[in-house]
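Subject: sequence -> structure tokens, single chain

Hey, anyone have a minute? Need the predicted structure for the following. Not urgent.
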Amino acid sequence: VSMDLNSASTVVLQVLTQATSQDTAVLKPAEEQLKQWETQPGFYSVLLNIFTNHTLDVNVRWLAVLYFKNGIDRYWRRVAPHALSEEEKSTLRAGLITNFNEPINQIATQIAVLIAKVARLDCPRQWPELIPTLIESVKVQDDLRQHRALLTFYHVTKTLASKRLAADRKLFYDLASGIYNFACSLWNHHTDTFFQQVSSGTEATVLSSLERTLLSLKVLRKLTVNGFVEPHKNMEVMLLDFLDQHPFSFTPLIQRSLEFSVSYVFTEVGEGVTFERFIVQCMNLIKMIVKNYAYKPSKNFEGPTNVEDMNALLIKDAVYNAVGLAAYELFDSVDFDQYKPLRRRVIWLIGQWISVKFKSDLRPMLYEAICNLLQDQDLVYLETMFTLLFQLLQQVTECDTKMHVLHVLSCVIERVNMQIRPYVGCLVQYLPLLWKQSEEHNMLRCAILTTLIHLVQGLGADSKNLYPFLLPVIQLSTDVSQPPHVYLLEDGLELWLVTLENSPCITPELLRIFQNMSPLLELSSENLRTCFKIINGYIFLSSSEFLQTYAVGLCQSFCELLKEITTEGQVQVLKVVENALKVNPVLGAQMFQPILPCVFRGIIEGERYPVVMSTYLGVMGRVLLQNTSFFSSLLNEMAHKFNQEMDQLLGNMIEMWVDRMDNITQPERRKLSALALLSLLPSDN
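Reply:
Had a minute. Here:
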């Protein structure tokens, strides 16, 4: 049954008003009713009647527009279920373009969008009068009507331009060629008007004029970019979006576009006149030209420069800088093996490319070049090169340069490893001074930490001589109560670990800095893995002293961690316990006793994560094999907790253990489990 326009308007208006309510008791029934009306013939004519009545409440009209727009999406196509009749659609099309006089901007935009949606489906075949009506409407003198018609003209053009089927493209080409001259003149007219009003009009009229200029330019842009097959054959059509859609048509504009963008963005020409969005557009234009595949040059070109021409050398240097920064992007575009760069830039540039593409048979030539640049000595003389780098480190004053030199020193130390020992005396003496001087420069301190990491690895057990400087550095870098830890923690932990790995024996000072560990475990950060490696390092280095001093606190931290940690974190905790039991079975079981019931329970209940179960069995295997009396007392304790006989509980555990043996992948752990279970055979149970 069709809705009668006059009688239904009042009812629909009432329900729409209720649908704008904040009270859900009023809102929900209204939404349900509107949903039922969506497929009712005449409903959209009533909505049109409501949202074009400017005397009604703005919120109600806004809602009417939205329901109308949703209806187009669902019911406008002829093949849609509950499709609108052709008669009603014809009436609606006519009603939509009768008056372009909507006073509210947001509603005007929504109306323009819904007209464009109808146009996408019906223009030009079922709606031939749309474009002629818009063209006539944008000519009217009334400012509001002219703006609203232009807004609709833009949305219709934008929508029609986005259609991709061949037949639709042909229709848009025909439309573009028919109205292009008019669109050009429209833009020229509004641009001229805007420039006239800039000097004489009020702010409101200038803004209004600028809006119309922008809308007419947007219309022109859509017609230009999407309305021509060979746009470069029509000089009126040359605009910037061609770069993306028609790169070859844009070629004549490349130089002028780059000169324009560079001058406004990078020189004093732009001072005082540029603004953020303009700069972004200029940068986008430069980027699109540089990255456009159609403009990629030939790989082989020969770039000889007169060494007396300083300007040409500077340009060449800038080009090499750009090529180095974009090494990975230019992989297919530059034949680097044929490159002949400047002396000053050569090492930096090769440094960028060496891991990308560099033939091994060119390396002797590279080493020769490096020797010449450092001094006339040959690079194979490690002492000379190290001395030169150390002298450079002392001479330079810029923080950034010191960091670069330290990085190179670190690389050299890492590469030659223990062969560095005879030459590091001077560096070892200088680093404490540099550390003190860099108190305000945390990034330089990070570079010092990295150098120390490689230095300790190179010195091995001899690094013990560095402890008076090294241990306070580790202490500061890993102390979360000290502000610098934000920058230094990651490298500080790495240095701590390397120091432990190369320590010949524990010292009281090395033992003391473990006080920093408890707060680090509370952080539960991405550095947790390194923390566990450090803990294991202490266990292997000096289990008795370490466990007696720190195991109680460590066990408390672990119990807290196990409540909220990931599966991988649980495994790391259990591995520490396992290592403690491996190195010192009696003390390990004593110190980590609070964790063992949890392990026992995990085995009995058949922990579902194989990697966790495997670690549980590893821990329990150590206890069973190496500390039988402790296992007996643990079994007794668990029998009370489970309210079972000890024999029954032991039987259940063995059954689960044998069942889950396949969870154990490491041969060492499989052997341990086998031995642990076999150790039960001599018992009289």
